[in-house]
Write a structure and sequence with these properties.
With 254 residues, the protein is an alpha/beta fold. It folds into 2 domains: 7-85, Elongation Factor Tu (Ef-tu), domain 3; 95-253, 3-Layer(aba) Sandwich (Rossmann fold). 14% of the residues lie in helices and 35% in strands. It has 5 helices and 17 strands. The protein has helices spanning 65-71, 108-112, 132-138, 177-189, 232-235; strands spanning 7-18, 21-26, 37-42, 46-54, 57-61, 78-85, 95-100, 118-123, 140-145, 152-153, 170-174, 196-199, 215-216, 221-222, 229-231, 243-245, 251-253. Strands 10-9-8-7-11-12-15 form a 7-stranded mixed beta sheet. The chain has a 6-stranded antiparallel beta barrel with strand order 1-2-5-4-3-6. Strand 13 (215-216) and strand 14 (221-222) form a beta hairpin. The chain is globular, with a radius of gyration of 17 Å. The two termini are 33 Å apart.
Length: 254
């Protein structure tokens, strides 16, 4: 696939995973490492970055104009895909995964290839738990919901006290940035921030490291090219968990 040109793909299946999340399966497989992303072009609307949940699917939560337009599509409709881009997760040995909400999507390829030993999965409520059955088939699954309708009543980060971090060579994390920052705080306190691998989401235009719209403070690292997966020790002292930038470059709290 050409790095700069989107390839047209046809949506072959739409799976309603939760009341707010759908998986869009398309008719082309993309060779990517777990955690890499693609730029998804919704004709007439926008082009946005999305993680691959499989070589031929993206899993999407409706949060803006482009995702709302995707949710209005049907099987047989066409979108554009270019990529994959960026760095993915790199794991060996025992791996712990921590996900909140749709953050389970980029971690699913690690599950399907048997690379996760224990998975901590969080959601606002039981009906929004993403991929729980599929995760349970391949890893030890621990669940937390904000409202207590399934598993632990509270935040997914609170489940970290129930595992021995020393048992894991890597901790792969994706979800709301406030949640991920809390995970990094725990890892840093335990002296193992470098074992964490965090998948960041930032506003992007080009996806290939040219425009600078996704650069992060204070080191100027580009999420599209140097990430989207960063080790925890790199993120310490950065904007991570504090703010991001919108399309105009203005800061906003995460």
């Amino acid at each position: 696939m050409h790095e700069q040109m989107p390839a047209g793909v046809t949506i072959t299946e739409i799976v309603e995973e939760t009341p707010s999340i759908r998986t869009f399966v398309f008719d082309r497989e993309i060779a990517a490492r777990p955690g890499q992303f693609v730029m998804v072009w919704v004709p007439g609307v926008d082009e946005i970055p999305m993680a691959l949940s499989s070589p031929s699917s993206i899993t999407v939560q409706k949060v803006g104009d482009a995702t709302a337009a995707l949710f209005a599509m049907r099987e047989g409709d066409r979108i554009g895909i270019r990529g994959p881009y960026g760095n993915g997760f790199t794991v060996s040995g025992r791996t712990l995964a921590v996900a909140g909400g749709v953050g389970a999507s980029p971690l699913l390829p690690l599950i399907t290839t048997g690379q996760v030993d224990t998975f901590l999965l969080g959601a606002r409520t039981a009906s929004e738990l993403l991929f729980a059955d599929r995760i349970r088939e391949s890893a030890t699954l621990m669940i937390a919901t904000d409202d207590g309708t399934a598993g632990h009543h509270g935040f997914v980060t609170q489940l970290m006290s129930r595992v021995d971090l020393a048992d894991f060579s890597h901790v792969c994390v994706c979800g709301p940035e406030v949640m991920m920052a809390a995970v990094l705080t725990v890892l840093d306190r335990e002296g193992c921030a470098e074992r964490g691998q965090f998948s960041l989401h930032r506003y992007m235009k080009c996806g290939v490291g040219l425009c600078g719209s996704c650069c992060t403070d204070p080191h100027g690292l580009r999420v599209c090219r140097d990430g989207p997966v960063f080790s925890g020790d790199v993120l310490l002292g950065s904007e991570f968990g504090r703010y991001a930038r919108d399309a105009s470059g203005s800061r906003h709290r995460v």
